């Protein structure tokens, strides 16, 4: 094959691989550590206006 075609195919493969890895990581198919507020001793406050609904007024 032509060297130019091989280079284009290699770059395309690398870009496609990076997109697939990013997508799998984002959709949590690749395990990674998740942190919550308790890990950093952050208190969670609820507004008296919220009244259990997760909407803005």
Question: Features of this protein?
Answer:
single chain, 57 residues, mainly alpha, 1 helix
Protein architecture, described:
The protein has one helix at 3-26. The mean pLDDT is 85. It has a domain at 3-40. The chain has 57 residues and is an all-alpha fold. Helix content is 42%, strand content 0%.
Describe the protein's topology.
Layout lengths: L2 H24 L31
Quick structural gist:
The protein is mainly alpha-helical and 57 residues long.
Order of helices and strands: H
Task: Write down the overall geometry.
Answer: elongated
Poorly predicted ranges: none
**What structural category do the secondary elements indicate?**
mainly alpha
Q: How big a fraction of the residues is strand?
A: under 5%
Q: Main beta sheet: strand number and arrangement?
A: none
Number of helices: 1
Overall number of strands: 0
